[in-house]
């Protein structure tokens, strides 16, 4: 049965009714958006729409979400129509050039808003379906773990987790695809009982590595995990049900979940408090894509049917985002995709901001390459909804220039007296404020559990400068650039201020400070008595930009990270066996590959250095692991460090902790819904920390004559 049928096919009458409803709704929005109003009536309309939205947002109905989107689009379309028809006065050549640049940035933001609303209008929220009761009907699966130069300590945990997947042994093969050709990894694979594959070259990087492995394997399905993504034991049982049921389904994608903080979360102290950018994509956007049969393959934590993958020539090698490009080609051939919003694997985030930026540059370049060589709006074989979803994903990465324009636009008036919008300050507020407030209010309702609006501003500002040139060059010449492996498992041994990566933000900050000073001087000396409102409007805009830039600078203040083995919260029963034979019932607090924190059920003093055995139970079995007490914190519990484990003990540790079916699900989506005041307060505090970190860096640099090396020491 095809995926479309499993979703519930609409009758021709229902399709006609839906089409009529869409046309009527768009016509109504177009009519309301184009009606000219004076300032007073524009404010009254905006107030009425905003109050209606405030009342509507309390409901959890999906229909209400569509209504909020309609109200937001109405006010945003009014703003864009007004900008196009009433604010593009000729003025001076400088007015025209700078004003046109701002308008282009606003049009870009409007298109992204429209496409984004379409993408998440009605998330599918797909549930797993059961596999056949007879395991003889379960297909064969090859698990691919591509690796290049990652530390063996990172790879081995993923390999051991894959080796305990709940799937019939005679129908499962685990392959480590080593483009680094390392003898120590080959030896480990032999000991772990998994297959080791390599090749004589590194052509086409990860995509080429996978394609080479496809020629040497034969499983009906291929599950792919990055070498730092540890699958849960239940991964295949959760993901394979839809693939067995629907022969036209080519790929099932699950979320990428990271149990270590990324540089934004660590440097801004938001880990576990504010959703990172991955939560928006995997928590909402992919779920929305699934409604339109436009789920992307994301390179890891996914299962692909071998036949369709080979039919499209394997994993795409023409761009550095081979995963999304492969998904497009599968959809072009008429195959379906599916998304299960259930985390069944977890991995390591990048350690440093520079590495994180480098990874996002590759993503941005790759999506721009696809936009250039296989543009979803014009390529054959895609349905309209798929074209819109793919296009939105690609144009998202072109936000570099618009973001920089928004950060500098008010300086045109403050520094040069240029009018980028030919209208009074009151008229600008009357049209722009409802556009901003309505879209913000709607996105709070739609995305509040998955993204913080203001923190997202900080995130995009941090990356804007660095993705601007790669995306532009990829459109001009898509063959430029190469695949770079993202380093994982490294350390940040000392806290330091990364002045190198902060340079563009510091430049933008100086520009905004200069504009602010110029505007204040004009206010004080009254040189613009006829444009005081315009001055205040641009000063307010500049103050907001400085707040965002301050928080962005805070991301450059790298915080110390010296744990190779990150701790993961987990509460489960355990028993500590003391040297005298005493058994101490405990429960775990957290764990890592190197140790555990436990809390005895009853107080029991333990001296540091005491050799113990920790007994862990899972699925009716238990195993004892050798350990030594490192710290006894009385009522707070005890910390232990594992002694050297043999391979089977290490496999059991992974099976009973990292590979638990419920572990990552319990950590997923636990953030509070975003509020404007909450995120505003958080970004303000981060901005203050950013300015303080910058001040300390300037003071330290001046003492060393601006010649000393940076304080960081990465490994």
UniProtKB/TrEMBL annotation:
Residues 143-312 form the Glycosyltransferase 2-like domain. Keywords: c-di-GMP, Cell inner membrane, Cell membrane, Cellulose biosynthesis, Glycosyltransferase, Membrane, Transferase, Transmembrane, Transmembrane helix. Residues 561-658 form the PilZ domain. It catalyses: [(1->4)-beta-D-glucosyl](n) + UDP-alpha-D-glucose = [(1->4)-beta-D-glucosyl](n+1) + UDP + H(+). Its cofactor is Mg(2+). GO terms for molecular function: cellulose synthase (UDP-forming) activity; cyclic-di-GMP binding. Its EC number is 2.4.1.12. The chain crosses the membrane at residues 12-33, 39-56, 63-82, 102-122, 404-433, 463-485, 505-525, 537-557. It is an enzyme of class 2 (transferase). One of its GO terms (cellular component) is plasma membrane. Pfam families: Cellulose_synt, Glycos_transf_2, PilZ. CDD domains: CESA_CelA_like. Its main location: membrane. Pathway: Glycan metabolism; bacterial cellulose biosynthesis. It is found in: Cell inner membrane. InterPro entries: Cell_synth_A, Cellulose_synth, Glyco_trans_2-like, Glycosyltr_2/OpgH_subfam, Nucleotide-diphossugar_trans, PilZ_domain. It is a multi-pass membrane protein. GO terms for biological process: cellulose biosynthetic process; UDP-alpha-D-glucose metabolic process. Catalytic subunit of cellulose synthase. It polymerizes uridine 5'-diphosphate glucose to cellulose. Belongs to the glycosyltransferase 2 family. PANTHER family: CELLULOSE SYNTHASE CATALYTIC SUBUNIT A [UDP-FORMING]. This is Cellulose synthase catalytic subunit [UDP-forming]. It comes from Pseudoxanthomonas suwonensis (strain 11-1). The lineage of its organism: Bacteria, Pseudomonadati, Pseudomonadota, Gammaproteobacteria, Lysobacterales.
């Amino acid at each position: 049965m095809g995926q479309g049928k499993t979703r519930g096919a609409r009758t021709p009458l229902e399709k006609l009714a839906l089409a009529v409803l869409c046309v009527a709704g768009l016509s109504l929005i177009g009519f309301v958006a184009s009606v000219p109003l004076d300032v007073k009536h524009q404010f009254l309309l905006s107030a009425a729409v905003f109050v209606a939205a405030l009342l509507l947002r309390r409901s959890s109905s999906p229909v209400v979400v569509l209504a909020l989107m309609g109200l937001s689009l109405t006010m945003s379309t009014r703003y864009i129509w007004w900008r196009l028809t009433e604010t593009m006065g000729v003025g001076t050549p400088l007015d025209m050039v700078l004003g046109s640049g701002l308008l282009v940035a606003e049009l870009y933001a409007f298109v992204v808003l429209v496409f984004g609303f379409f993408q998440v209008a009605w998330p599918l929220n797909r549930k797993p379906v059961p596999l056949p009761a007879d395991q003889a009907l379960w297909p064969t699966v090859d698990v691919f773990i591509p690796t290049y130069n990652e530390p063996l300590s990172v790879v081995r945990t993923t390999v051991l987790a894959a080796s305990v997947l709940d799937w019939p042994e005679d129908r499962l093969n685990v392959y480590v695809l080593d483009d680094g050709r390392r003898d120590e990894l080959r030896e480990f694979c032999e000991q772990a009982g998994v297959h080791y594959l390599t090749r004589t070259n590194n052509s086409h990087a990860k995509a080429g590595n996978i394609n080479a492995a496809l020629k040497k394997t034969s499983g009906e399905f291929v599950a792919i995990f990055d070498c730092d993504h540890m699958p849960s034991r239940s991964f295949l049982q959760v993901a394979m049900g839809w693939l067995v049921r629907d022969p036209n389904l080519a790929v099932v994608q699950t979320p990428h979940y990271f149990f270590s903080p990324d540089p934004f979360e660590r440097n801004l102290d938001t880990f576990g408090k504010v959703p990172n950018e991955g939560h928006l994509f995997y928590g909402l956007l992919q779920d929305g894509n699934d409604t339109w049969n436009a789920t992307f393959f994301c390179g890891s934590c996914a299962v692909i049917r071998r036949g369709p993958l080979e039919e499209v020539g394997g994993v795409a090698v023409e761009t550095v985002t081979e995963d999304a490009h492969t998904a497009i080609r599968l959809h072009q051939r008429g195959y379906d995709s599916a998304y299960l919003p259930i985390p069944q694997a977890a991995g390591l985030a990048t350690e440093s901001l520079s590495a994180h930026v480098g990874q996002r540059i590759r993503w941005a370049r790759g999506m721009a390459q696809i936009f250039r060589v296989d543009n979803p709006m014009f390529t054959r074989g895609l349905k309209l909804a798929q074209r819109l979803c793919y296009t939105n994903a690609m144009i998202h990465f072109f936000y570099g220039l618009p973001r920089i324009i928004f950060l500098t636009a008010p300086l045109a008036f403050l520094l040069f007296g240029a009018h980028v919008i030919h209208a009074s300050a009151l008229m600008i507020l009357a049209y722009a404020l409802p556009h901003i407030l309505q879209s913000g209010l709607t996105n709070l309702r739609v995305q509040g559990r998955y993204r913080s609006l203001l923190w997202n501003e900080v995130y995009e500002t941090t990356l804007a400068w660095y993705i601007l040139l790669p995306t532009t060059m990829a459109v001009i010449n898509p063959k430029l650039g190469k695949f770079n492996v993202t380093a994982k498992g490294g350390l940040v041994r000392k806290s330091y201020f990364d002045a190198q990566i902060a340079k563009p933000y510091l430049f933008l900050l100086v520009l905004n400070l200069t504009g602010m000073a110029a505007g204040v001087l004009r206010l004080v000396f009254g040189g613009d008595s006829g444009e005081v409102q315009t001055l205040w409007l641009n000063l307010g805009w500049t103050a907001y930009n400085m707040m965002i830039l301050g928080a962005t600078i805070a991301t450059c203040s790298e915080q110390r990270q010296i744990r190779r083995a990150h701790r993961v919260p987990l509460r489960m029963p355990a028993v500590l066996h003391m040297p005298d034979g005493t058994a101490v019932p405990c429960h775990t607090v957290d764990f890592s590959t190197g140790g555990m924190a436990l809390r005895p059920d009853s107080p029991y003093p333990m001296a540091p250095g005491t050799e113990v055995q920790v007994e862990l139970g899972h699925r009716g079995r238990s195993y004892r692991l050798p350990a030594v007490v490192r710290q006894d914190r009385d009522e707070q519990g005890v910390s232990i460090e594992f002694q050297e484990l043999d391979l089977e003990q290490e496999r059991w540790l992974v099976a009973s902790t990292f590979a638990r079916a419920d572990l990552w699900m319990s950590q997923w989506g636990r953030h509070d819904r975003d509020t404007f005041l909450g995120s505003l307060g958080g970004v303000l505090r981060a901005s203050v920390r950013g300015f303080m970190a910058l001040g300390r860096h300037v003071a330290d640099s001046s003492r060393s004559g601006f010649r000393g090396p940076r304080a960081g020491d990465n490994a």
